């Protein structure tokens, strides 16, 4: 437990570079003019890539472009006891399918 007046024990020293900085990954990618997301998009849109490869590319891109949604729990209290009806509707190209 930290106590006021005591020095920091363990951990990285102030000013020490982290692993990513030590490897110089960002600088290397910039120097080589490589954009990993752009490469994944090119693979995903390629005619040579299989459907599975395209899906994996889009999934990987989504990790960095869209936030992950958390599941939400909903509690509904009601004095009236009646069954809950859930209607699922799927939309086709030209018509509504029920």
Account of the protein in words:
By secondary structure, the protein is mainly α. The protein has a domain of 55 residues. 37% of the residues lie in helices and 4% in strands. The protein has four helices and two strands; from the N terminus they run ααααββ. A two-stranded antiparallel sheet has the order 1-2. α3 packs antiparallel against α4. The radius of gyration is 26 Å and the shape is flat.
Defining traits:
two-stranded antiparallel sheet; 98 residues; mainly alpha
Mean pLDDT: 81
**Main beta-sheet annotation:** 2 strands, antiparallel
- Helical fraction: 25-40%
- Contiguous helical run count: 4
Structural class: mainly alpha
Q: Could you spell the SSE succession in H and E letters?
A: HHHHEE
Indicate the low-confidence ranges by residue numbers.
Answer: none
What does the radius of gyration come to? 26 Å
Q: Which sequence of strands runs across the widest sheet? A: 1-2
> How would you describe the shape?
flat
- Number of E strands: 2
- What portion of the residues fall into strands of 2 or more residues? under 5%
Distance between the termini: 61 Å
The gist of it:
The chain has 98 residues and is mainly alpha-helical. It has helices at 19-23, 25-31, 36-44, 51-65; strands spanning 90-91, 96-97.
Indicate the topology.
Layout: H1 19-23, H2 25-31, H3 36-44, H4 51-65, E1 90-91, E2 96-97
Antiparallel strand pairs: 1-2
Helix pairs in contact: 3-4
């Amino acid at each position: 437990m930290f106590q006021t007046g005591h020095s920091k024990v363990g951990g990285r020293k102030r000013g020490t570079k982290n692993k990513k900085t030590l490897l110089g990954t960002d600088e290397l990618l910039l120097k080589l003019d490589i954009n990993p997301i752009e490469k994944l998009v090119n693979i995903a849109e390629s005619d040579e890539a299989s459907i599975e490869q395209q899906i994996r590319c889009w999934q990987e891109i989504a990790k960095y472009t869209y936030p992950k949604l958390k599941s939400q729990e909903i509690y509904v209290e009601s004095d009236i006891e009646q069954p809950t009806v859930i209607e699922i509707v799927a939309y086709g190209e030209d018509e509504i399918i029920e």
